[in-house]
């Protein structure tokens, strides 16, 4: 088994990881709720026991201070009689014991008890060691740990009026059953939490599968993509983050398809256009003789074809770069100054009547080098299709939230059947305005690419009085 196979088997899917994390969080949350509930119940039990002990001790202390012996009508003077009368009048809870203890400290005191069953393993009235501990304790209350169950107790020492033995009233509470009920609630909550986790597992598995379905489609689509087939797309449903992921992936595929198409187009165009000059070069080299004049003529023709191939490659590379986001680099530019610079550069292209027709005096954002390249290309196109002395006008204007830069010549114009094709690569039209040009038919394609790179377009219309006018229309973007 290869390393990749072992890694694939060890890999845990996103669906399982989501489910495991969800179960972990829910398990911690449910366990925390159960533990907190148990803690609250135990705290309430503790508070209730403390209140009960305080109440019983307070009632005895009050009876001792203010009570009268029903037999004599006078205050109690004998501890034994005080304890018996008080215990006869009390009704204890099921887990509560009320005792009267009489005797010398350190000995097993005699006890006065209520005759009833206490539902614990070892009641206090049957535990001599516990009675001695409580009777001899200097504290008024406390907790006595025992293997048979803890005892919470409170004690009120009976006042002595003479030589009577020491006595005390003791109220004891056995919290075992109360704590057991809290533990039962805790166990029930844990059982309910377990059932809830099982139900959550099934629901979460289905929900996670539905949520991650577009992600699986992305993975499947990506695995099925090839250079020959980039047409597959992912259906986008809803408006959540996963739908946004699918939409983003589709947009990436669109860009990838365009990039591959541009690459194939570049290769096809290069192969198509370079085939002819390569054939010409090979033919002249094969037929070249030994005569100096013939060799010189062959070298001239070969050099000319090589220059033409170089221009074709440069133009194709420029068109391929037009697909990239950094094809244009806009910056603040004074439009009037840019128009004047283009006019100055265009005047060197040929003996024409060059006219700076008008300029828009404002600052806009565009790529000055690319716009200059497009305008010079349009000027060169005008030179190729006009005669010496004919007028070529260059200008710019701004209106309706956009700027326009134009080159207008006074030649024979463009035939209607050619207007739709001259901006395509390697298309010169069937009725072009003369046959002076020797280009590859990429110039106007470059102009169109530069305009579209700025978010604009190129428009062609007839010049008043004859000729053709090419206009770069750009949406006005202030710096």
What does this structure look like?
The chain has 479 residues and is α+β, with helices and mostly antiparallel strands. It has three domains: 18-181; 241-321, Orthogonal Bundle (Helix Hairpins); 331-475, Histidine kinase-like ATPase, C-terminal domain (Heat Shock Protein 90). Helices cover 51% and strands 15% of the residues. The chain is built from ten helices and twelve strands. The radius of gyration is 52 Å and the shape is rod-shaped.
Task: Give a quick summary of the entry.
With 479 residues, the protein is an alpha+beta fold.
Annotate the secondary structure layout:
Layout: H1 3-10, H2 14-66, H3 79-88, E1 96-102, E2 110-113, H4 128-136, E3 141-144, E4 151-157, E5 167-173, H5 176-224, H6 241-287, H7 292-321, E6 331-334, H8 335-346, E7 353-358, E8 363-366, H9 368-384, E9 391-399, E10 402-409, H10 443-453, E11 457-462, E12 468-475
Parallel strand pairs: 7-9
Antiparallel strand pairs: 1-2, 1-5, 3-4, 4-5, 6-8, 9-10, 10-12, 11-12
Helix pairs in contact: 2-5, 5-6, 6-7, 8-9, 9-10
Question: Which features characterize this protein?
Answer:
479 residues; alpha+beta; Helix Hairpins; Heat Shock Protein 90; five-stranded mixed sheet; 10 helices; 12 strands
SSE succession: HHHEEHEEEHHHEHEEHEEHEE
Q: Please count the beta strands (DSSP E, at least 2 residues each).
A: 12
Largest sheet: 5 strands, antiparallel
How far do the termini sit from each other? Answer: 62 Å
Number of helices: 10
Radius of gyration: 52 Å
Strand order of the largest sheet: 2-1-5-4-3
Strand content: 15-25%
Helicity level, as a percent range?
A: 40-55%
Q: Could you say which overall geometry the principal axes of the C-alpha atoms support?
A: rod-shaped
Can you give the mean pLDDT?
A: 82
**Alpha-beta content class:** alpha+beta
Segments where pLDDT lies below 50 for 5+ residues? 431-438
Count of domain modules: 3
């Amino acid at each position: 088994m290869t390393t990749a196979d072992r890694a694939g088997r060890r890999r845990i899917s996103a669906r399982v990881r989501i489910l495991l994390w969800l179960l972990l969080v829910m398990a911690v949350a449910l366990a925390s709720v159960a533990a907190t509930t148990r803690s609250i119940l135990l705290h309430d039990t503790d508070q209730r026991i403390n209140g009960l002990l305080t109440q019983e001790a307070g009632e005895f202390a009050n009876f001792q201070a203010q009570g009268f012996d029903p037999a004599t009508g006078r205050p109690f003077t004998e501890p034994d009689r005080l304890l018996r009368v008080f215990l006869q009048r009390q009704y204890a809870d099921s887990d509560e014991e009320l005792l009267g203890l009489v005797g010398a400290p350190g000995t097993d005191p005699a006890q006065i008890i209520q005759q009833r069953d206490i539902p614990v393993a070892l009641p206090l009235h049957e535990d001599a060691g516990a009675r001695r501990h409580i009777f001899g304790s200097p504290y008024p209350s406390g907790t006595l740990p025992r293997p048979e169950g803890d005892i919470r107790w409170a004690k009120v020492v009976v006042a002595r009026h003479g030589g009577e033995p020491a006595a005390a009233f003791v109220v004891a509470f056995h919290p075992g059953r109360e704590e057991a009920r809290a533990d039962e609630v805790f166990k029930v909550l844990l059982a309910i939490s377990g059932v809830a986790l099982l139900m959550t597992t099934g629901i979460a598995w289905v929900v996670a599968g539905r949520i991650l379905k577009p992600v699986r489609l992305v993975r499947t689509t990506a695995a099925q993509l090839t250079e020959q087939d980039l047409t597959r797309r992912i259906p986008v449903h809803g408006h959540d983050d996963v739908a946004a992921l699918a939409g983003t992936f589709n947009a990436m595929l669109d860009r990838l398809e365009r990039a591959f198409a541009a690459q194939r187009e570049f290769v096809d165009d290069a192969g198509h256009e370079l085939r002819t000059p390569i054939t010409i070069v090979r033919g002249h080299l094969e037929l070249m003789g030994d005569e100096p004049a013939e060799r010189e003529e062959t070298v001239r023709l070969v050099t000319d074809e090589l220059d033409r191939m170089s221009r074709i490659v440069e133009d194709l590379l420029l068109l391929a770069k037009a697909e990239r986001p950094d094809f244009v680099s806009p910056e603040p530019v004074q439009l009037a100054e840019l128009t004047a610079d283009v006019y100055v550069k265009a005047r060197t292209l040929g003996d024409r009547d060059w006219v700076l027709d008008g300029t828009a005096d404002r600052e806009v954002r565009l790529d000055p080098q690319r716009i200059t390249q497009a305008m010079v290309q349009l000027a060169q196109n005008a030179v190729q299709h006009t005669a010496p002395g004919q007028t070529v006008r260059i200008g710019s204007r701004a209106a309706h939230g956009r700027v326009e830069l134009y080159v207008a010549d006074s030649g024979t114009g463009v035939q209607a059947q050619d207007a739709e094709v001259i901006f395509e690569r390697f298309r010169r039209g069937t009725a072009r305005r003369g046959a002076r040009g020797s280009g590859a038919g990429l110039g106007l394609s470059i102009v169109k690419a530069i305009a579209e790179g700025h978010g604009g377009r190129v428009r062609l219309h007839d010049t008043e009085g004859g000729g053709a006018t090419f206009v770069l229309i750009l949406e006005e973007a202030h710096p």
